[in-house]
Amino acid sequence: MNEINLIRGDTEAIKVNFFKGSEEFTPKHMVDGDILTFTIRDIVTERPILVKSRTLPDRTFKLSHEETKSLEAKKYNYDIEYRKPDKSIVKTFVIGDVNVRKDVTYDDRN
């Protein structure tokens, strides 16, 4: 299972990389202008908690303090989906869990 661990209120960068063995590569059907979407969904209510999309060549999802500070400390599901703008190809690359932990040094002013 693919797992991401986050601390509530922290900034984070999640980069999508592809490997064949130990070599990094870009799948040949992926071209600039295609879309990657990262979604965090509540396991119980199944509602999306956070949805971020990137247009290739950008493959990094940056999570801000503002986006993570309101997350409850619990487990969520996530996936990363790839698609062509015309949806001729739609592919879910990875599904896994996001574990959000409560921050210890919490500043309730911001």
Write up this protein.
This protein is mainly beta and 110 residues long. Helices cover 4% and strands 50% of the residues. The longest helix has 4 residues.
Summarize the structure.
The protein is mainly β. The protein is built from one helix and nine strands. It has a five-stranded mixed beta sheet, with no helix packed on it.
Tally of alpha and pi helices = 1
- Major pleated sheet: 5 strands, mixed
Give the tally of β-strands.
9
Sequence of strands across the biggest β-sheet = 1-9-8-5-6
| Fraction of residues in H or I helices | under 10%
Q: How would you state the average pLDDT, rounded?
A: 89
Q: Could you say which overall geometry the principal axes of the C-alpha atoms support?
A: elongated
> Based on helices, strands and strand pairing, what is the structural class?
mainly beta
Distance between the termini: 34 Å
Low-confidence stretches: none
Q: What is the H/E order? A: EEEEEEEHEE
> What gyration radius follows from the Cα positions, in whole Å?
15 Å
Q: Percent of residues in beta strands?
A: over 45%
